[in-house]
What does this fold into?
Amino acid sequence: MKRLIAAVMCLFSAVLGSLRGCAQDVLSAKSDCRVPPGQKVIQDFPLLHIAKIPDSDRENWTLHVTGEGKDTLLLRWNDFVALDTVASVSDFHCVTGWSRLDNHWVGVRIRDVLQLADPERSAKYVTFRSQDGYTTSLPLSECTGDEDILAFRWEGKDLDKNRGGPVRVVIPEKYAYKSALWIVEMKLTERQELGYWEQRGYSNSADPWKEERYKK
It folds into this structure.
């Protein structure tokens, strides 16, 4: 009888282990299908930037929308957070080869801010300028989706300067160098202006699923 009970327990343990293994395989497969080629999932969130982290606080922060718009827009912090905000969960892919999944952001959709400037028909692109002088740009059609936001919260906390705050760009469908930190200006343009890394050999389209890391 003891041998029978032991055999049943061994069989139960084997089945349970197999089920756990299947669940892990399913979770792994789910993650894999969200990770672009050449990327490795990490839990940290490294900060990469071109200069010293700028001193910036909400009280003195402003956002300008300039260029090909009927109105030149200036938003101070209270103006900005009074706009419609959204909660967004998205993945983040760095061109250096790491990805962080399921980032929880709160912010304002880029398209909602740009609409306040009433873009001219000639406006086809937007250049993002950071407080430290960094720039990058995208066609309007590629940065005005539901998940493309100007974020001011991340993982339940206010976005501090070590994470690109008070406000940073988040464009999940592009490599992270298109998601400018410490954003202070969005400039509407008729022709695209190449940004900091794009002028230095990085891809202008920056599609992680096509591994568009560098110019061809």
In short: Residues 9 and 112 are 60 Å apart (CA to CA). The longest strand covers residues 98-109. DSSP finds three helices and eleven strands in the chain.
